[in-house]
Amino acid sequence: NLWLRYDRPGHRTRMVECLVQAPLKVQRSFCPDDTGQCQTMLLHTGGGMVGGDRLGYDVVLEAQSDVCFTSASAGKSYRSLGPWSEQTVNLEVGVGASVLWCPQETIIFDQARYQQNFCIKLQEQARFKGWEIVRLGRTARGEKFTQGHWRSSWEIWQGDKLIWGERQQLIGSEQLYKSPNALAGFTCLGTYVDLSRSFDQDLVNQAREMVHSQGRSPQFGLTLTATQGLIARYRGNSTQEAKNIFTQLSQLSSVI
User: Alpha-carbon distance 179 to 165, whole Å?
Assistant: First the structure.
């Protein structure tokens, strides 16, 4: 388990409480520029998750805090004979606070059983940007995700109102790997959520043109949430490509 709390008494955000339990650790946070954003690197010293492992991240951002979270390396979920491994992220984002959640990808081994849960609670004028990227199978050694089970759950609340929720799952099989309605032969999936501002269709079109003008993968889509947030989807073979696209979208939404 890991529990963190941040505040912003002056210009810079600071970490004021940190409680960790192995194998989770936190690298020392720092503010690299004049934006006041605190950057925190999350570490998992165990090297990966096996069946039955449970990781919990509980983070509180006080009013006006600004924090970017990333991770030192890709997460891994190893094959299991039955028990699930599970990671749960709970973010409480105070009034006017901002959080960017941009970890490295998670590699889901063939025959793994893995579930990822996100619960984000935004107060008034709070902002969130974040992504989830998974690689299904150890493709460098020719492994396909033809057995196993992956699930993902998102809930984002504004006060006591659920403003976005989603459930995804993939049950490994050769049919799923080949189906155009599932993986279509691809090995990487990504979801990016931006609730940092109000978007309209013109801004969505600008973002879409920015991605496609650089010869990006055609397996990419953008749409709006019911509350004018931005959702991006990626399906391809490169986690780095997914991160590059999502990073550009994050930077674009900060300036347009």
Answer: 25
The overall longest dimension of the chain from CA atoms, in Å, is 55
| Eight-state DSSP code of residue 83 | P
How far is 198 from 16, CA to CA, in rounded Å? Answer: 31
Which tokens is 66 given?
């600004």
CA nearest to 203, candidates 223, 233, 227, 220: 223
DSSP state of 10: S
Question: How buried is 39 (Cβ within 10 angstroms: 0-12 exposed, 13-18 middle, 19+ buried)?
Answer: middle
What's the pLDDT at 233?
A: 93
Rounded Cα gap, residues 131 and 122, in angstroms: 16
Round to whole Å and give the CA distance between 42 and 12. Answer: 20
For residues 67 and 13, is the Cβ–Cβ distance under 8 A?
A: yes
Rounded CA-CA distance 45/206 in Å is 40
Sign of the C-alpha dihedral computed for residues 30, 32, 38 and 43 taken in this order = negative
Q: What confidence tens digit (pLDDT) does each residue in 241-252 have?
A: 999 999 989 988
Helix axes 201-212, 239-255, angle to 10 degrees: 140
Please provide the distance, in angstroms rounded to a whole number, between the alpha carbons at the two ends of the chain: 38
- Do 185 and 178 contact (CB within 8 A), yes or no? yes
> What average pLDDT does the chain have?
91
d(CA 128, CA 197) in angstroms, rounded, equals 9
DSSP-derived pairing of the beta strands 161-171 and 75-77: unpaired
Indicate if the pLDDT at residue 256 is higher than 60. no
Stated pTM of the model: 0.92
